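Protein in question kept in full:
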Amino acid sequence: MTVSNAPVTLRGVLIYPSLISIEDQAAILDDLSKVLKAAPLFQPVTPSGKPMSVRMSAAGQYGWITDRQGYRYAPTHPDGQLWPAIPGRILRIWDQVAGVDRQPECCLINFYGAEARMGLHQDRDEADFTMPVVSISLGDEGLFRVGNTTRGGKTESLWLRSGDVAVMGGAARLVYHGVDRIRAGTSTLMPKGGRVNLTLRVVT
């Protein structure tokens, strides 16, 4: 499948604006509701014991979790059950933009309420950094900040809107990135508001 939307580049990160139609966004949310019935959202804590402001779940062979034991991928939800399969509609987006033969082994699901944010961090718990990370935005707009491959220095930001897809690969695979804030009420996709971010990763 080809990608018709021309990407915007933000410090090496490719961002495909409005890649996902409104109809497909709603269908993906319906798929996610089934995933979350099997693997409910939970509030993770950092190794220091600080609760994160996002709520989280996952689909696939692995989910990414954090608790007092550290950051890691795990084959089971914190309640002990296996993660549900990644919905086919989400896998098709990976096939459109990832540019690699392997399929993702994890679809991390982050839910941002109006006050949630994600500090600058690298995605480096995966085994193969030649595999990209594909990020899907649904719901309210989020201010996406991208820095460098080392901590510190200049950063740039861009508002991600519902239906946008970002790809961190190549030289941008290990850039520091985060979400500074959510612009509540900018999407009607979810009746109660909020932002869902899906990140697809090859883990092993």
